Amino acid sequence: MGKYYVVADFGSGNTKISAYRKVQSGYELFSGAIFKTSATGLKNSETLQTFSQSLRRLNLKSGELYVILPEDDENVLSSEADYPVGNKKELDGIVKNNLASMLKEDESLYYHSWRLVKPYSSGQGLFQIAAVRKEYIDTIHEIAEQHKLKLCYADLAANTVENLYRLIKNDKKHGLSSNDDASVIVEVGHRSVRVVAFSREAVIRTSAAVHNLYRMDKLILDSLHDLKNDQKINLELLKMNPAYALRVSQYEGFLNSLSADIIRFIKQSVSGEERYNLNSVYFTGGMYKTPKLVSTIKESFDVPCYAFPIGDYMHMSENCIHHADNKLYPSEDVFAPSLGALIGGF
Questions:
Q1: Which of 24, 115, 159, 224 is 20 to 30 A away from residue 153, measured at CA?
Q2: Alpha carbon distance 234, 224 (integer Å)
């Protein structure tokens, strides 16, 4: 049957477990689960228990585990800094000496890693430094071993979305034809948005912001009046429906805030020191179909906007994702960061 790959995406709203195997056309997502992430994240024993139960349900004899972690400024952190580009040993020492400035507690409580984001002609380079609390990784490692999986690496959520550009930058159908052109990937998750601008050569800029669209669940529920106790009502479906979303008075404010962040990130990326012609914008993530969002971005830049062609690189088997009965069945777009984790990591 070949090798199995499992991705655990501990999102800020929902945790997504997805199991893949390689096929001729890319990856096949053949099993998985989606469940709500506790507000306290991996500190919550119930989140870890549900994670373990999801791995048990996969019932794999062996496989590799990839973990995606959202930043929270306390337990999973990252920063960027300019350092001299040297050998690995020298850079390890430089990063370790400067690690304390980004941590609120003793550095012995964290695992850390770094990567070169962009080299400069001066011999310096822009580096990304990431740190995660050791107890989180150690616990995930123990749970993985219990279910016959090998933990390969943990990655930041923003990095996995950034990895998606590798799939389309030189694609014959979706890729860029000129070095002066740029495209953008916008991933709209349950509570955050990530924007990756890229050229044919490399990533230009990756930006992220939080949004308030998750609050629409309660606001729509309150607007249902007598129907609010109907267990058959699917709030995730209703908030994608203009007939319900647009009747919420706060919706325009949420939409304007989110779209303003996306527009600002795109303008900063293509109008910086190196100017690019914006060629196209690709949308993905579980919330990008929010009413009027894509049209607002399209009108601002007057460029084609597409759904990220995730189906060209990944196939999801029918009815393979375990989920709560009152939740919307997830689309392939929900697993875009997971696909990014498979094609490259920290």
A1: 24
A2: 12
Region 172-307: CATH code: 3.30.420.40
Question: What pLDDT, in 10s, does the model give residues 54-113?
Answer: 999 999 999 999 999 988 888 999 999 999 998 899 999 999 999 988 998 999 999 999
CATH architecture assigned to 1-164+309-346: 2-Layer Sandwich (3.30)
Burial call 222-231: b when 16+ CB within 10 Å, e when fewer: eeeeeeeeee
Distance, in Å, from the CA atom of 28 to the CA atom of 3, rounded to the nearest integer, reads: 12
Q: What is the pLDDT of residues 297-310, one digit of tens each?
A: 999 999 999 999 99
Can you say whether the dihedral through the CA atoms of 105, 108, 110, 116 is positive or negative? positive
Q: Are 277 and 182 in contact (CB under 8 A)?
A: yes
**Which part of the chain is CATH 3.30.420.40?**
172-307
H or E stretch covering 144: helix 134-146
Residue 89 sits at φ, ψ, to 5 deg, of -60, -45
The pTM of the full predicted model, rounded to 2 decimals, is 0.90
